[in-house]
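From the pipeline queue, job 12 of 40. The input is one protein chain; the requested action is below.

Action: predict structure.
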Amino acid sequence: MQAGTTIFEHMSGLARQHGAINLGQGFPDFGWPDAVLAAGATAITTGYNQYPPMRGLPELRTAVADFYQRRQGLTLSPEQVIITSGATEALAASIMAVAGPGDEVILFAPAYDAYAPLVRRAGATPVWVALQPPDWQASAGAIAAAITPATRAILINTPHNPTGGIAGPAMLAAIVDCARQHDLVIISDEVWEAVRTGAAPHISLLALAPERTIKIGSAGKLLALTGWKVGWVVAEAALAEQVAQVHQFLTFTTPPPLQVAVATGLALPDAWYDAGRARFTTARDRLAAALTAGGWALLPTQGSYFLMADLAASGIALGDRTFCEAAVARADDGVAAIPLSAFQPDGAETPFIRLCFAKSDGVLDEGARRLNLARARLA
């Protein structure tokens, strides 16, 4: 099965080729804690480099449980936590644990581009429910209509990549009701749980339906260290065991020095996390103000590192992929963005592009300047 090259690799490659500002791939260039880097370096140099337990180091599993108790009021035990090599591996293990040939998994479109390929790798079939702009919600009726006797799971991402939306109470309640009525597992990708730039609180599906939810988290997003690829699954004991049985034959384990360092990071005081959230909000507002002044129409965003821009409402008649390819391929003023079509099941061009604002002020200012030039040139 050929999956092709991800849009992130494609656009980042073009950005490198043309020397463009990269507002495409979602990685921050500020914000990681030095104490966490030091803890990882110490763990390497003191010999913490052999196989750790398959489910993860006890100190990290305990740190994850304690973090969610402190930050989200979830009562968990370390036995409910499995450490994975990134959230994508957590997603793969979770999907393969609950779905297989002949089964169906409900996905919400637009969707992070790994979801559908992972469902197909498990032998199952993605079934799509459309999120409706500008706030990117799905109705109870649309969710219920997608369920068939073959449905085994609902996969939701909130806060949402690529749109920056947050699933509202009505959508969350509909998912829980459908899951309980049809005995479905909820796979809840909550990696952006701490990167909220709006007023809405994070509501975990694990709090609403603990008996049937697999919650997925990411140290890369929490600690602004995306390249470390340390994630986890949290679920009640029986579900956690199902995921562990798959995880052991995917990556088996995750580098122990990074696990030690992440445990240090999760123990940072709440003030550190609150300051990080404020810093991302400031970055969002800086980019939004510069683009709005340049004539761009932006959609509201409440979570993640991302802003959505509406090409049509900004006076640009091009489709999203056409615009992104043209905007990046400039020797002196190129800028990389991500077309929303890459997150849609049919891949058809849309009027929306995704911009990453997890960047330093200088990068944001120059990126906005170049986007404003691109708008003037391509409108």
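Job complete. The mean pLDDT is 95.
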